[in-house]
Amino acid sequence: MLRFDNIVYGPVHSRRLGVSLGVNLLPADGKLCNFDCIYCECGLNRDGRTRTPMPALPEVTLELGKTLASMSEKGERPDVITFAGHGEPSLNPDFPAIIDAAIALRDEFCPDTKIAVLSNSMTLDREDVFLALRKVDDPIMKLDAAAEDLVNAINSPNVKVDMEHVIANLERFEGDFIMQTMFLGGARPDYRTDKEALEDWFNAVRRLRPRQVMVYTLDRPAPVEGLEKFTVETMRGLLEPLIKEGFNIQIN
């Protein structure tokens, strides 16, 4: 299971984001998420129980400021500051204030660096979270499937999910976001064979018209056995209709 011992980690080379300085807003000793995805590199929720609190605004500001100052002194800068880590970052109650602080620190030390947040799109009912996500350069919003039964099978949310409501919330970005979707075999939906699931997801993409669609597959061992990694060629073949329609598709 992937674990980050520090609030700020890296920088690491991300296959999707470049040189990324990570920020984990969840406890260091376990996982905290409102999803329990079958492919999560941090493991299943039951395997990552935490006994420590989430880092608060002063801690995050101190650690991020120290790291950016040190990198600046060395003439280094990350391509992106990425809020990810052991679960859903917007579950941290200080999330909106932390985003404001991160923007201020970025502007001071590395104004060309982007700020990204990896979110599962389930906290957009909180207006302060939505407004914070609108401030960052790259809000990367997960949408693995467009139907409730498939979201339940893949993401195992801990609350009842109304996907029409989720998609309506994503419409509020007016296309100014990045959609992130996992493609894999051996689970529902297997996008090689489940054409209805693929078409439902296509229609969500067409409705939301994100500025980029980031499609990826397994990179590290998954906590659920039997899942299959896709090749880039397989994913490109499945996505051909959207590519032909002019959507900006990034395949990893």
Structural features, described:
It is a single chain. The chain is an alpha/beta fold. Helix content is 33%, strand content 17%. Strands 1-2-3-4-5-6-7-8 form an eight-stranded mixed beta sheet.
Question: What distance lies between the first and last C-alpha atoms, to the nearest angstrom?
Answer: 21 Å
- Main sheet strand line-up: 1-2-3-4-5-6-7-8
Number of strands: 8
H/E series = EEHEHEHEHHEHEHHE
Low-pLDDT residue spans: none
Helical/strand content category: alpha/beta
Could you give the topology of this structure?
Blueprint: E1 8-14, E2 18-24, H1 57-73, E3 80-84, H2 95-109, E4 114-119, H3 127-135, E5 138-142, H4 148-155, H5 163-171, E6 178-182, H6 195-208, E7 212-216, H7 232-238, H8 240-244, E8 249-251
Parallel strand pairs: 2-3, 3-4, 4-5, 5-6, 6-7, 7-8
Antiparallel strand pairs: 1-2
Helix pairs in contact: 1-2, 2-3
